[in-house]
UniProtKB/TrEMBL annotation, chain A:
InterPro entries: DUF1806 (IPR014934), YojF_sf (IPR036492). This is DUF1806 domain-containing protein. SUPFAM superfamilies: Hypothetical protein YojF. It comes from the Bacteria.
From TrEMBL, chain B:
SUPFAM superfamilies: LmbE-like (SSF102588). InterPro entries: BshB2, GlcNAc_PI_deacetylase-related, LmbE-like_dom_sf. It comes from Gordoniibacillus kamchatkensis. Transmembrane segments: none annotated. It holds the Pfam family PIG-L. This is Deacetylase. The lineage of its organism: Bacteria, Bacillati, Bacillota, Bacilli, Bacillales.
Length: 114, 217
């Protein structure tokens, strides 16, 4: 994974719009958040391989970044994105990693299922 | 440690075996066969190295290789990957999972099963894995049941369960155990930092492995 290059991400987003694509979206505090610190709460969510189609999609911010996708019936949104896989030309693998390298948020978009 | 005919280990995530690796290595050293059923590939893990060298797409294959390397370090040659998805064990079809576990039990006829203590193991996958083992073994006639040694680490678990009744000193197997932790590079690189097995503090941390024998009604 590499630090996000927003212009390159934007180009791939353009190539994915107005068609049926697959989305994976997640966020997690880590399964042991409450175990390690009782003042914290363990929470996590993920959707894998949901089908969406977006008509508008862009990356915003100066890092960490945000991505918003306007779909036919709502939105897909992620904040806190720091890294991407630059070796992927046709699909987007975006993640937000904290200072320990641990994943906090993830967003993946592709024409075929992950 | 009491001699066993065959030990079956049932855990949900690659690296769950590392904290029990000394016990497993010592059974193997006694000539006891060990079968390890690992339910998932830990594909939702959030540790991916720092800086991250994996992502959601590449993590499962990386963790499978780490799991295989960990087993080599411990000496486990019978590894069964059940192919479930991380975080979803409690939502799987219970009867189907129990039947798969029962098939392995009937095949290898373990005298001991090592798993997590349901309700006292923090991660939902840990609790669900232990619960599946307890359900499956509980359905066997009492005379046929293997012993079940459970790992528990929820806060306050000793207040309910009492102290662990099986406490193994694995000082003689720290090399294998350290090798297991090192094999799971994506998960433990941060945890041990620049420490080595020569560090007294590390040795002290790895030396003891504790279990609770499950008491069936």
């Amino acid at each position: 994974m590499q630090p996000i290059a927003p212009q390159a991400v934007q180009r791939i987003l353009q190539g994915l719009k107005d068609q049926d694509i697959y989305v994976c979206l997640e966020m997690t505090t880590g399964a042991y958040a409450a175990h390690r610190d009782s003042s914290k709460m363990t929470a996590a969510t993920f959707v894998s391989n949901g089908r969406i189609r977006f008509s508008q999609g862009s990356i915003a911010g100066s890092g960490p970044y945000r991505v918003g996708l306007k779909t036919e019936t709502g939105w897909v949104y992620a904040e806190g994105l720091t890294h991407w896989d630059e070796s992927e030309a046709e699909r987007l693998i975006l993640a937000g990693h904290d200072s320990d390298g641990k994943l906090v948020v993830g967003l993946m978009l592709g024409k075929t299922p992950f | 440690m009491e001699r066993q005919r065959h030990v079956l280990v049932v855990l949900p995530h690659p690296d769950d075996e590392s904290g029990r690796a000394g016990t497993l290595a010592s059974y193997i050293d006694q000539g006891t066969p060990v079968t390890y059923v690992c339910l998932t590939l830990g594909e939702m893990g959030r540790s991916m190295g720092n800086p991250p060298f994996a992502n959601r797409v590449t993590l499962p294959a990386i963790r499978q290789k780490e799991l295989e390397a960990s087993c080599r370090s411990i000496g486990i040659t019978d590894l069964r990957m059940f192919g479930l998805h991380d975080k979803t064990v409690e939502f799987e079809d219970q009867d189907a999972l129990d039947a798969r576990l029962r098939a392995v039990i009937d095949e290898v006829k373990p005298s001991l099963i090592i798993t997590f203590y349901p309700g006292y193991s923090v991660h939902p996958d840990h609790d669900a894995t232990g619960a599946a083992v307890i359900r499956t073994v509980g359905r066997m006639p009492a005379a046929d049941r293997p012993a079940v040694h459970c790992v528990a680490f929820a806060k306050g678990c000793e207040e309910v369960l009492g102290p662990p009744d099986v406490v193994n000193d694995v000082s003689g197997y720290l090399q294998q155990k350290w090798g297991s932790f090192q094999a799971h590079r994506s998960q433990f690189a941060m945890f041990f930092g620049n420490q080595s097995l020569q560090d007294k503090e590390v040795q002290e941390r790895l030396r003891t492995e504790s279990f609770w024998t499950y008491r069936f009604e």
